[in-house]
Write a structure and sequence with these properties.
Blueprint: H1 2-7, H2 12-39, H3 43-68, H4 89-110, H5 115-124, H6 129-153, H7 159-180, H8 185-205, H9 218-238, H10 243-254, H11 258-282, H12 288-311, H13 314-339, H14 343-349
């Protein structure tokens, strides 16, 4: 029960205090009830008992709302965290659409789902890391559809590799989604930092070709499925489609061209994003309306990124991706430091 309360932004002390208040109100009212009842032939006692029932019911409702995490004005009613609290609604919608435009362009350009943009943006707007990750995964679904269509028209999708990766991703995303509901938020922040460091290094070290393909064997197929499981766990935890890991892995480990890796990645992440979103929705972690707003906007813009991807050289594309992630890494490290107990104070004292 403690884990559920913590996920919803309410601790056990809050709930216990509500229960204690309810009990105290009940004892006080029953005491008044007995005195008034003896002095006034029970008339005032009955009235007080009715008030007692109403007070207890109101207190019980407040406790239930606290446990569900909706003591604040939850944006759109989904999930249990508040998005855009204290901001005008028009500004929130404009920011969501802006995030969709940027993530959609990067999705088409780099073959990623866009979670590396969406998650930090949703955290900035007020969601917890776990709610931002879950909502981001939902936004990736429509984004990947248009991206796949764009790459497939140029013949840059390996359908067999994508199916094998997708099978592993579906299994891994379920594991990651389950872990998402229980891992501490500070740990999720640092996992995200480590993830970004890995992707940046892969982009700097390796330069993909433009004309290689994946040579499929039984061993290759098994390794693709295993890779999908690992990436699926990351996807469920971090709210990413997994493309930022899958694209360099397909090029470095399996010899795919940069465009082939991007198109295959977008296709593989589609079913896993659906599976992860279904699991997260059951756990009340998804702000579905916000996710669809970002996802539909990104889906419209993604083909433009795909066109640009064909114009730039593989080395230039990798450099651009590494530069963008470097900026994101700095912000993510600072965010993780701020919520790590005692770490920020120790760094400031030095």
């Amino acid at each position: 029960m403690a884990g559920v309360n913590d996920d919803m932004g309410v601790n056990d002390d809050t709930v216990k205090q509500g229960v204690a208040d309810a009990a105290a109100n009940g004892r006080m009212t029953r005491g008044d009830d007995g005195v008034d009842g003896r002095g006034n032939d029970g008339v005032d006692g009955r009235a007080t008992r009715e008030g007692d029932g109403r007070d207890a019911a109101q207190t019980d409702e407040r406790i239930k709302r606290a446990v569900r995490g909706v003591t604040g004005p939850a944006y759109g009613g989904e999930g249990s965290a508040t998005l855009g609290e204290g901001r005008p609604a028009g500004h929130v919608w404009a920011m969501l659409i802006g995030v969709g435009v940027l993530s959609g362009f990067l999705s088409g350009l780099f073959g990623i789902g866009g979670g590396t943009v969406i998650v930090p943006a949703l955290v900035f707007l007020g969601l917890s890391q776990r709610h931002a990750a879950a909502t981001s995964l939902a936004a990736i679904i429509p984004t990947s559809i248009t991206g796949v269509i764009s790459y497939a028209t140029g013949g840059d999708v390996d359908w067999i590799a994508a199916v094998l990766l997708a099978c592993g991703l579906v299994v891994g995303s379920q594991i990651g989604s389950w872990l998402l509901a229980w891992l501490p938020e500070v740990l999720l922040r640092w996992i995200f930092v480590v993830f970004l460091v890995f992707v940046i290094l892969s982009q700097i070290v390796f330069t993909p070709s433009r004309d290689h393909v994946i040579h499929m064997t039984i061993l290759t197929g098994a390794l693709l499925a295993l890779l999908g499981v690992g990436i699926g766990v990351l996807a469920g935890l971090l709210g990413i489609g997994g493309g930022a890991v899958m694209v360099p892995a397909l090029s470095v480990l399996f010899g795919a061209s940069d465009l082939m890796a991007r198109g295959t990645s977008l296709l593989a992440m589609f079913p896993s994003s659906i599976a992860g979103t279904v699991a997260n929705t059951r756990r009340r972690l998804v702000h579905l309306r916000n996710g669809l707003t970002i996802g539909i906007t990104a889906a419209i813009v993604a083909p433009l990124g795909t066109i640009v991807a064909g114009w730039v050289t593989p080395r230039m594309g990798a450099n651009l991706f590494a530069a963008y992630l470097g900026v994101l890494l700095v912000r993510s490290i600072w965010t993780a430091v701020k919520i790590t107990p005692g770490l920020r104070e120790r760094l400031l004292r030095r």
